[in-house]
């Protein structure tokens, strides 16, 4: 008898899991509360581990066509002086690829296109994970996961990091990733398909509190005297207007989960290990979660054995990464008077460290 899986959430992790399970003969349905696929969204850095996972789903042609390789990754100070570089060549020698950047809507579209018609059901909200009769329930319902709260309680709700993020796209090209660190704030630019650039900016702020003079004024206040690469983005935003600026507060899972499964339910992605985007690994880990879970479910006859295997493989590394991300968030947004120590530590890490691929 064909086994049945229900996926709650049609984001990167949920769709990845569905594609992998469909390829192995499972009957899959995906329920996404949004009314349709997104047509706007940020750029995602896909590290080699996530690219390898997507290759295994038959998406190698897509990632090589639509995901731009980042020619470099560099960290600089607010005045433009260099802190250090990500050694992309060494990463490629070690892992077979470098970081590639793709627009989130394009990746979601490619994953959805890999599924049979009717599998993804938009405008469908599932709020009760306890009374579903499928062989397995996959909760991929994001940062504010209802499934996580239902299974593990309020102690594992998202925690505000104390930092807000602005983001958007501007109409000029860049071929690498640059992140600028100043006193308590940072600014990043990332390449995007079509000759565009995705940008983001992060700074401390009160939770859910709009900027008194507007978001463009807030950005200019924080970053208006930074190096020319940052000011170039601000100049484009001044011409485009406030509508070109998105903003959202940054959260993580303050109290880690004791496990990623409960009964026949498995949590993946932000539902399992929400982290701030400081290391740019959220989407990558959701992809690897989905492929790992699907592999366990298709290589083990017993669902409970498969869920135990998934939890064993994924919980420790993702929670370690979430802790590292939390430490990075605190370090980046440190006061100006001790920023020199932060920069020195980062330069040493980049010189001798090996970022997880």
Automatic annotation (TrEMBL):
InterPro entries: FAD-bd (IPR002938), FAD-dep_Monooxygenase_BioMet (IPR050493), FAD/NAD-bd_sf (IPR036188). Residues 5-114, 259-324 form the FAD-binding domain. Keywords: Monooxygenase, Oxidoreductase. GO terms for molecular function: monooxygenase activity. It comes from the Bacteria. SUPFAM superfamilies: FAD/NAD(P)-binding domain. This is FAD-dependent monooxygenase. It comes from Streptomyces luteolus.
């Amino acid at each position: 008898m064909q086994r049945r899986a229900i996926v709650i959430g049609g984001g990167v992790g949920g769709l990845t899991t569905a594609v992998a399970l469909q390829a192995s003969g499972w009957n899959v349905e995906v329920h996404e509360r949004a009314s349709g696929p997104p047509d706007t969204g940020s750029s995602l850095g896909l590290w080699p581990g996530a690219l390898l996972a997507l290759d295994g789903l038959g998406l190698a042609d897509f990632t090589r066509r639509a995901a731009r390789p980042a020619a470099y990754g560099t960290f600089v100070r607010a005045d433009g002086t260099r802190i250090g570089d990500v050694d992309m060549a060494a990463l490629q020698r070690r892992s077979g690829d470098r970081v590639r950047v793709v627009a989130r809507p394009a990746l979601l579209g490619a994953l959805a296109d890999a599924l049979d018609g009717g599998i993804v059901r938009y405008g469908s909200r599932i709020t009760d994970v306890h009374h579903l009769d499928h062989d397995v329930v996959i909760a991929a319902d994001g940062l504010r996961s209802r499934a996580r709260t239902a299974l593990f309680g309020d102690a594992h709700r998202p925690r505000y990091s104390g930092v807000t993020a602005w983001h958007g796209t501007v109409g000029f090209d860049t071929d690498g990733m640059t992140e600028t660190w100043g006193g308590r704030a940072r600014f990043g630019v990332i390449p995007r398909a079509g000759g565009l650039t995705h940008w983001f900016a992060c700074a401390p702020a009160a939770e859910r509190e709009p900027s008194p003079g507007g978001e463009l004024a807030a950005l200019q206040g924080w970053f208006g005297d930074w190096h020319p690469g940052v000011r170039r983005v601000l100049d484009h935003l001044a011409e485009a207007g406030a509508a070109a600026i998105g903003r959202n507060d940054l959260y993580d899972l303050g109290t880690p989960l004791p496990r990623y499964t409960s009964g026949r339910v498995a949590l993946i992605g932000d539902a399992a290990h929400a982290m701030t985007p400081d290391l740019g690994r959220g989407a990558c880990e959701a992809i690897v979660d989905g492929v790992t879970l699907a592999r366990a479910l298709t290589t083990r006859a017993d669902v409970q054995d498969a869920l135990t295997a998934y939890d064993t493989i994924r919980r420790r590394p993702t929670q370690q990464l979430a802790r590292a991300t939390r430490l990075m968030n605190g370090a980046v947004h440190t006061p100006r008077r001790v920023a020199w120590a932060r920069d020195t530590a980062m330069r040493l890490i980049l010189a001798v460290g090996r970022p997880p691929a």
